[in-house]
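Give me C-alpha cells for this 178-residue protein.
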Amino acid sequence: MTVLTLIDPETTDARRAELLSTVKSRMGAVPNTTKAMANSPALLDTFLAMSQTLSRGVIDAPTRERIGIVIAQGNTCDYCLSAHSYVGAHVAKLSAEDIEAARHGENADPHIEAILTYASALNDGRGTVDEAVVRAVRAAGVTDEELAEIAGHVALNVLTNYFNKAAGVEIDFPLVTT
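Here you go.
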C-alpha cells in the first residue's frame, strides 16, 4: 500500500522541484523513491548530500552497489534490491553473477567479500560487529577509512530500505525480490 504521495516535479513548489531536478541530473531519471522522499525536502536533501559525499570516498561505485544489494537483501527491501541490481548492472557494470553473489555477501575478490561481510554484520547486528568478524575483515586488508565508509553506506542503505518499506513505494525498476 502506498503511504506517501509521489511528488510531481512539474507541479510542485520551487524547493522540491530543485531537489528533484538534482536527482534527474545525477541519475537521468526521477525514481519513485525520490518522488516520495520529496514530501520532506529535508529528507531528500539529506539523502542527496549523503549519497554525493559518500560517492567521493575510497569505496568505488561497483562496491557501493554491492553493499546496497547485500543490505537490501538483508532488510528484505524489494525496492532497493531492484534499484541496486539495475544500477549495478547498467551503471556499475556488474555481471548477473556478481549481482547474485552480492545478494549473499560473496565475491571472488577477498577484499570485496570482506567489505560485504562487514556491511552485513553491521546491518544484522544493528551496529554491533563480533570481534572475530572485525579480525577477519582486517586480515583481508580492509582499512580504517573503508570501515568508516562502510558504516556510512550501511546507514544510507538502511535509511532507504526502511523508507521504501514504510512508505510502500511502488517499484519502478525491473523487479527483483528478496
